[in-house]
Amino acid sequence: MVTVDQVLSSLKKVVDPELHKDIVSMGMVKDLVINSGKVAFTLQLTTPACPFNSEIEQDVRNTIANIGVHDLDLKVTARVMEGRAISLDEILPGVKNIIAVASGKGGVGKTTVSVNLALTLARTGAKVGLLDADIYGPSVPLMLGLKQTPTINNNKIEPAVSGGVKVISMGFFYEQSQQAGIYRGPIVSGIVKQFLTDVNWGELDYLIIDLPPGTGDAPLTLAQTIPITGILIVTTPQEVAMNVAVKAIGMFHKLNVPIVGVIENMSYLQCPHCSERTHIFGKGGGQRVSEKFNVPFVGEIPLHIQIMTGSDTGEPITLSEPGSVQANAFTNVAKTVAGRISVIAAEMKATDEAEAAGRTLNEKDQTEPQNVPQS
Ligand SMILES: Nc1ncnc2c1ncn2[C@@H]1O[C@H](COP(=O)(O)OP(=O)(O)OP(=O)(O)O)[C@@H](O)[C@H]1O
Ligand SMILES: [Mg+2]
Predict the structure, then answer these.
(1) Which residues line ligand 1 (CB under 6 A)?
(2) Which residues, in sequence order, are CB contacts of 276 under 8 Å at separation 6+?
């Protein structure tokens, strides 16, 4: 009869294609029980949105079958890894990952990407929040068709909820006050900080932050106030958008914030009849930006009238037509982004463990008597 050791050593051969580590070392195999030849365990994946989830599950099933076990009770779950250095007194202790969506140039589709990315991740079962950090021109409520004004509960602002995503935006407060967004830099930074500290975000796997265009106060405040898992850079294929995307990447590199990747929006126009793609703004620009900085290219979103009308009428394409080609483009990007976040989180965990091991060794050096040869 098969033993626990045999099962574990065979599962050690199953390697996560993105993390390049075996699933046993990554702690993905939980609650292994063997009872009269029946093997039961839980496979805990690193994100419900991982592009390789079904591949890993199939590998596990094949591996177990190969050691002669035909009675397998396999549960597949996902627990998103923390991709931020969260200390006990940290702001947002319940938020595992923060992804800020940035661009150098305005109007390239940051908000469209943020909204559809948040909705797609939530659809996979992840707990998702969306913070609209565009204080002067908040457009998230409009894109989600949200009209409610947030309530206050126990001195915390309760976020609105749309498609399972918790949302906060200055737009909710403008609706109330009918004021235009005319604020000076320090006030903008203050509001962004308040959205982090005074909103009841609760437990989140991913908090997406839709940044205003450029490299001004809001991105700087964020990068300096809280540990961000990574920045997602949105660009369009035009030379001018790419040049400013390059500047934005440069700024975040200087601030030591990891780059999740580059996404190219409005990449091509696809003919609805023959599916031919026309790259009206040029081809391969986002890819070139990612190669130049050695950061991943996370995908392309087509230019499509339904993406535009969906955003402008408050019915994002990923909610209104989830199976469409356009929505699938967002699904692919969301999976790649979630995979990238798992990689960043795993690297961070490995660094922490290596540092902790180093500390233990140092402490040992200091406390253990040194083996000095007697003269
Ligand atoms: N892939 C797309 N296809 C068609 N229209 C799009 C696409 N992406 C965005 N748009 C449209 O382009 C306009 C600008 O998009 P969006 O507001 O998301 O950009 P932004 O980068 O957030 O702008 P800002 O810099 O002003 O915050 C919107 O009208 C939106 O509907
Ligand atoms: Mg925007």
Answers:
(1) 103, 106-112, 134, 137, 139, 213, 265-266, 301, 303-304, 307-308, 311-312
(2) 270
